[in-house]
Amino acid sequence: MSNNENEIEKLLDENLELIQEFFCPSDMTLIYFVTENLDESEHNKIEKHINECDDCKRIVDDLKKASKWFDSKREQMLHNLEQKAISEGLLSWYGFHLPDYLILAYLHGKIPDNKMGDNIRKDIETHLEQCNTCMKKFQGYKTDDRT
Q1: Alpha-carbon gap, residue 44 to 22, rounded angstroms
Q2: The pTM is what?
Q3: How far is Cα 103 from Cα 99, in angstroms, rounded to an integer?
Q4: What percent of the chain lies above the pLDDT cut of 70?
Q5: What does the alpha-carbon distance between residue 65 and residue 71 come to, in Å, rounded to a whole number?
Q6: Same domain, 49 and 121
Q7: In a 10 Å sphere around its CB, with 0-12 CB exposed, 13-18 middle and 19+ buried, how is residue 26 labelled?
Q8: Does 147 have pLDDT greater than 50?
């Protein structure tokens, strides 16, 4: 290798980060790539770059692993919360009154039709049986709907 070639190689090595910053997509763009939040043409452009750039490929692989981990933890947490709500009763109204929006949702059949919704309906019904104030409110809304 000539001195010029050695000089060029040395400069490239010393400035690799700057060169990559100039030519490589930003970290945010790579995150958008992994989360599929790019339009098709931008996605294809980034995909082509990743296939040619080991550093970006490594970053994308790490982002995908982290994304899968967070997704699994989020799903696990939601599942645990749903199971707890079903087993313990989501609505524990000890000493409280049902909010109007919940009474209206119950009255108009807007509670979701699933296990959690079944539990919510059961808790509302139990509360209405035990709380004269909420039952009067419920009956008042029911009467208003008839007119």
Answers
A1: 19
A2: 0.42
A3: 7
A4: 78
A5: 10
A6: no
A7: exposed
A8: no
